[in-house]
Specification:
This protein has 5 helices and no strands. It is an all-alpha fold. The chain has a domain of about 70 residues: Orthogonal Bundle (Arc Repressor Mutant, subunit A), CATH 1.10.10.370. Helix 2 packs across helix 3. The longest helix is centred in the middle third of the chain and has 17 residues.
């Protein structure tokens, strides 16, 4: 795993370039999440969103983006909450190696 200094005080990576699937697995494990294919699909979608918009999405934006890219069944907040409990945007962004969303406490 990366050195502690690679993360901020909330566990978000300081540098996007430090992210890898191995780091994602370790971050997810620390959050008590065993990554499945469904998780990876959302993690890579979050990273694609970030590449397109240069920001992490708000929940409403993520739901719409998921619906447009993955279909209506996956474009629902309930689905995202089942994968990333509590705050899908915050937790998903953390595991995806993205900056903390601006609208998250």
């Amino acid at each position: 795993m990366l050195h502690r200094s690679a993360f901020d005080n909330e566990g978000f990576l300081r540098e996007l370039s430090d992210w890898s699937p191995t780091v994602a697995e370790q971050l997810a494990d620390a959050e008590g999440i065993a990554l499945t294919e469904a998780h990876w699909e959302i993690l890579y979608l979050l990273r694609t969103y970030y590449d397109e918009y240069n920001s992490t999405p708000a929940m409403r934006s993520l739901v719409k983006y998921c619906a447009s890219k993955l279909g209506a069944d996956k474009g629902k907040s309930v689905y995202l909450l089942s994968l990333f409990p509590g705050s899908p945007v915050k937790l998903g962004s953390k595991i995806a190696g993205l900056p903390k969303p601006h609208n998250c406490l």
